[in-house]
From TrEMBL:
Domain Catalase core: 6-390
SMART domains: Catalase (SM01060)
Disordered: annotated span: 363-392
Transmembrane annotation, as ranges: none
UniProt xrefs under InterPro entries: Catalase, Catalase_3, Catalase_AS, Catalase_clade1/3, Catalase_core, Catalase_haem_BS, Catalase_immune_responsive, Catalase_sf
Keywords assigned by UniProt, alphabetized: Heme, Hydrogen peroxide, Iron, Metal-binding, Oxidoreductase, Peroxidase
Primary enzyme class: oxidoreductase
Protein name in UniProt: Catalase
EC number: 1.11.1.6
Superkingdom of the source species: Bacteria
Similarity-based family: Belongs to the catalase family.
Catalysed reaction equations from the record: 2 H2O2 = O2 + 2 H2O
Amino acid sequence: MSKILTTESGAPVADNQNSASAGEYGPLLIQDQQLLEKLARFNRERIPERVVHARGSGAYGYFEVTDEVSQFTRANFLAEVGRRTEVFLRFSTVAGNLGSSDAVRDPRGFALKFYTAEGNYDLVGNNTPVFFIKDPIKFPDFIHSQKRDPFTGVQEADNVWDFWAHSPASTHQITWLFGDRGIPASYRHMNGYGSHTYQWVNEAGEAFWVKYHFKTNQGIRSLDGDQSAEVLGSDADSHQRDLHQAIERGVFPSWTLYVQLMPVAEAADYRFNPFDLTKVWPHADYPLQKVGRLVLNKNPENVFADVEQSAFSPNNFVPGIGPSPDKMLQGRLFAYADAQRYRLGVNHTLLAVNAPKATEANNYGRDGLSAVNKSGRGKNYEPNSYDGPAQTDNALAAPVALNGWTGTYTTPAHTKDDDFFQAGELYRLMSAGEKTRLINNIAGFLAQVTRDDIVEKNLAHFHAADEEYGARLEAAVAKLRAGDEG
Ligand code: HEM
């Protein structure tokens, strides 16, 4: 027999089909608690969407260590082959709103929460190994330029390319985004990257710089512009549908985790700034080393509760893993938890998807919106004489040596540190067909820009990356723009 329907306070509901009225045809009664509660609750069902990465899908699963890496990090969840850790992964697009379509040309988010025995470790990455900018102070301007214009209410090619015209370091990521991998066919068929450089530190206190690569075991599958238009026209939720249905069918998507490791001493003399998020480390310099397997095997029971309310912060580290001096990462260490205190409230870490699962959180935070009593009668100050939770005196990561003067620096002091050479290398690696598709994809968008100076500044970046790349693009844009005028 099914349970009795109740109000939020647990009282039985007599009628959930008809509102209480004054007489059969009369106006409604304010004493109808069920009606008032239902309407009031409904009015509050939406919360602010994420300011970026609003549209997403998520699933639970596990990470299993397959290769020994304890010589590089003392992170407990990576300590031995065979160790499994529960995870939650949220995929996303970046620029669209919550209700936007999946199959668009846009980077994809790849945000992973490891529920480790030493606390939750969040690795908040993308499906691209690099990013558009290298200073967090530019992030709000960058995002404004990509989202809807405040006056016209639509995304403007002029704004998108105007920002890039002033941001030469974006040339590498633009080359990636307009290339063959720019529109993943689904979340299952793309790689994930930590993108930033992070720090690993082992038991002996020896530190390494590390980059994470999750390679899809489903194989890379992408859409071209025509295929994407077709999917967009018929199924706005293509990625969500694909991920959900695959997991329900028992076809569990998986990724193999590799890392690149750089001994700390090599960073200072490396030929470019190893903390520059617009650059990759060539595999010839730092080969991929296998770490483990990530498997997604469980759909959330309630998408809102787990996917919409999930909160990832690049500042959630565990012992043995820490940040690097990457300026972008440093900015992100602040931005996420701050956004979540606004979006979800100060107690969002108590929500099931965000709370530790393999250990418990013990601290002196108590109050704030939606608090629950997680600490019993314990004291709410520290230090105390009542055997309350105490600090460990063990730093999570290793200290980083620094020197120099405070200031606002534009370019890190490294030789050969230009914004274009890796974009050129990526272009030259492409097959003839891929180069042509890249040129057509970029030209199709750049040709929509109405101002000559913005077009010219952008073309100069592609010329600087590779002369052929720039020349072909210039010709393609000129042809399209001439066609528009004719
Ligand atoms: C989401 C800020 C760069 C990946 C977000 C959110 C903010 C933010 C405020 C929403 C958080 C929330 O409401 O829960 C920034 C800033 C950046 C930056 C200030 C640069 C300084 C990046 C980069 C990556 C990235 C470089 C990838 C390498 C993500 C992902 C999400 C996200 C995957 C969605 C997380 C989720 O699924 O909940 N970002 N971001 N962001 N960001 Fe960034």
